[in-house]
Amino acid sequence: MNKNLQLLKLATTEDGTVSMRLLLQMEVTYHLNGETPEKAKAMLQDAAAFAYEEGLLSGETALEVERFETSVREFPFVSETEVAAFQAWRLENGDLDPEDIPVRLARYGLMSPAEFAVEMQERMAKEEERNHRCPRCPDTTRNTGDLVGCGSSNVSGPDEEGLYDCGDCGLFFRADTDSPGQG
Length: 183
Description:
Elements: H1 3-8, E1 11-12, E2 18-19, H2 37-53, H3 80-92, H4 101-110, H5 113-133, E3 155-156, E4 164-166, E5 172-173
Antiparallel strand pairs: 1-2, 3-4, 4-5
């Protein structure tokens, strides 16, 4: 067998038929203009079915479509700036181990953009929820005269005066910090 075919990991049947499996990814951003998201999904599903039924997947070649399946799904908008700020914040607060970065880069680089966007949005939402429930102890000065704490999330409160108590350094503080997810 040809080296190029071996690298592609093609399947060969007993009768010598060589098959390959391909994945076509197409990202479409619609302006809905009053239409429903369901209508947009149906349009893409219909377009894929039309391409298959009209022979557009093989064209004027000897290619033969053995198997065809489609999936249309939504994925969130997540900007590069949002993800970078979130990851930098996690790194600064010790929530992301610098030694894990090469593994994460490889994993995220091998994900589809849709999977990556979903994962990042889920992680940011969890962090936002965690920070809304219980803010971190401030580790930078916000106003002149402020005491600086340790940045820990081991915090209880608020008490009747609206103060939180850091269980690690003992600092009492209000939850009006600038960290992500804390409005």
